[in-house]
Amino acid sequence: MGAIAVVLFVGVSVLAVELKAAPSESVSVLSEIARAVFPTGSILPGALFYVVQLLTFAILVLAANSAFQGFPRLAGLLARDRFLPREFGDLGDRLEHSNGALVPAALATVLVVGFRADVERLIQL
Other CB atoms closer than 10 Å to residue 79's CB: what's the count? Predict the structure, then answer.
């Protein structure tokens, strides 16, 4: 899996350099690359552009959700070994009711409210 990630990273980097794709406020670099590789001239390439956008969205959703799935278990293990407060060791029947999920949710809420949901400022964190 690591080799696949490296190949994908190098491939996207080479395409970005060759296509002179640069980040902007309206579109991402990956979107610019997908638009150049799959032009909107015909039906199939145009559809593949939207497939790339949909898959990018799915990956970002799964990445955001992973903190809420894995952190409660990790915090429970660390609390059992006394590296975190013992309150994190409470794993309820459902992970969303455990302290390990409530704390990241509260911190995320504080960050979103504190930065007024400005993506430009939040992404730098």
Answer: 19
